[in-house]
Amino acid sequence: MRITAAVLEHAHAPFEIKDFTLDDPNANEVIVKIVATGLCHTDLAVRDEHIPIGMPIILGHEGAGIVETVGSSVTHVKPGDHVVLAPASCGTCAFCLDGHPSYCENFMSLNFLGHRLDGSYAYHAGKKQIGGFFFYQSSFATYALAHERNIVKVPKDAPLELLGPLGCGLQTGAGSVINVLRPRAGESIAVFGVGPVGLAAIMAAKASGCTTIIAVDVFDNRLKLAEELGATHSINSKTTVVSEVINSEILHGGVHYSIDTTGRNDVINQAVASLRFMGHCAVVGVIPTPKLEIDTAVFTMGRGLSYVIEGDSVPQVFIPQLISLYKNGLFPFDKLVKFYDLEDINEAVADTEKGVTLKAIVRMPQK
After folding, report:
1. Which residues of 203-240 are buried (b: 16+ CB within 10 A; e: fewer)?
2. Claim to verify: residue 142 and residue 179 sit in the same structural domain
3. Phi, psi (5° rounding) for residue 104?
4. Across-strand partners of 192?
5. 188 plus 304 within the same structural domain
6. What three-state secondary structure class fits 84?
7. If you write DSSP's letter for every residue of 249-288 in order, what string do you get?
8. pLDDT tens, position by position, for the chain (367 residues)?
9. Looking at the structure, do residues 25 and 150 belong to the same domain, yes or no?
10. Domain range spanning residue 255?
11. CATH number of the domain within which 228 lies
12. Residues 178 and 156 in one domain
């Protein structure tokens, strides 16, 4: 079938809108007509070569749409179903079987090769093979080819064009709180970096009953929104040593939990230094440097550090839970988004990088 997609021809380049041919699905695959897809910093990390992957490639990994065609062995979705696309996992390794598909032994191969495990491609420009299968979806396109395991069926009364970011960024922030840190009512948390992932963590912390929720960022407009979404305190870290403010002015002894969404060594050290004894810090940002270094002086007294992938979620369980929270006013992530048409994807990238837009969602032309 013919599709239109935003392709990255080479590193550090803008996206180009072109037409391609997409093959029919294999037995365990699904073709989804994409309604809209989120723009995530992981897409830009590929562009900037922080994540090595072959090019040209069609990126996009927060897709939402309507099932168009299913492979011969697919039974849990059918044409016409509304779905959100999540990362792929094998379903057979020890981590998948134990309920942790984000740590699938085959995660890198399934999501970052640019082709199937058998080496075959599904996207073509004439005789030229085009990389796809990014998070096994490549949703910067009018149609995406996904695996049955990364298809999440969602209610038809949910706003489909809004739901794509639940597949990666928002489930990462919310899942890191709800699935990993698991705060009890009345406990405390500090979130470093309140972009979309951090704001999802803020909302999840409020929904979990945290009574001290500290937002940390360098942009006052983001801190203001964090307060609207549940933060009880906000700190602009441009001219402040955050851990000192937390320990001396907000909670003597530090917070129970912290989350870093920046991937920066200096910020991660502050996130750890803000913890009370036996506190736990979750790191979710892509770390651009070869080493993560934590000062021994702050990494003592039972404090812990975890690197969390995709919120350690089972998407088929967790994404419907987030939709339920949204419907009940407990996860109002619609306040984060701004919509762009596919032809304006480079504007969406620019606005995201400038901080003008928190969460860009790219809508596909509906032909």
Report:
1. bbbbbbebebbbbbbeeeebbebbbebbbbbbbebeee
2. no
3. -50, 135
4. 216, 260
5. yes
6. strand
7. II-TT-EEEEEE-S--HHHHHHHHHTEEEEEEEEE-S---
8. 999 999 999 999 999 999 999 999 999 999 999 999 999 989 998 999 888 899 999 999 999 999 999 999 999 999 999 999 999 999 999 999 999 999 999 999 999 999 999 999 999 999 999 999 999 999 999 999 999 999 999 999 999 999 999 999 999 999 999 999 999 999 999 999 999 999 999 999 999 999 999 999 999 999 999 999 999 999 999 989 999 999 999 999 999 999 999 989 999 999 999 999 999 999 997 777 788 888 888 888 999 999 999 999 999 999 999 999 999 999 999 999 999 999 999 999 999 999 899 999 999 997 6
9. yes
10. 173-311
11. 3.40.50.720
12. no
Judgement on whether residues 144 and 219 belong to the same structural domain of the protein: no
214-244 pLDDT, tens digit per residue, is 999 999 999 999 999 999 999 999 989 999 9
d(C-alpha 244, C-alpha 53), whole Å: 41
Task: Evaluate whether 304 touches 326 at the Cβ level (below 8 Å).
Answer: no
Listing DSSP states for 121-186 in one string gives: --EEETTEEEB--GGGT--SBSEEEEEGGGEEE--TTS-HHHHGGGGTHHHHHHHIIIIII-PPTT
| CA gap 28, 186 in Å, rounded | 45
Rounded Cα distance between 296 and 263, Å, is 19
Cα dihedral value 339, 48, 356, 244, nearest 10: 130
Instruction: Specify which residues 87 forms β-bridges with.
Output: none
Token digits of residue 37: 């897809």
What single-letter amino acid sits at 223?
L
180 and 265 part of one domain: yes
Residue 122 · residue 30 · CB < 8 Å: no
Beta bridge partners of 145: 31
If asked whether residues 63 and 139 sit together in one domain, one would say yes
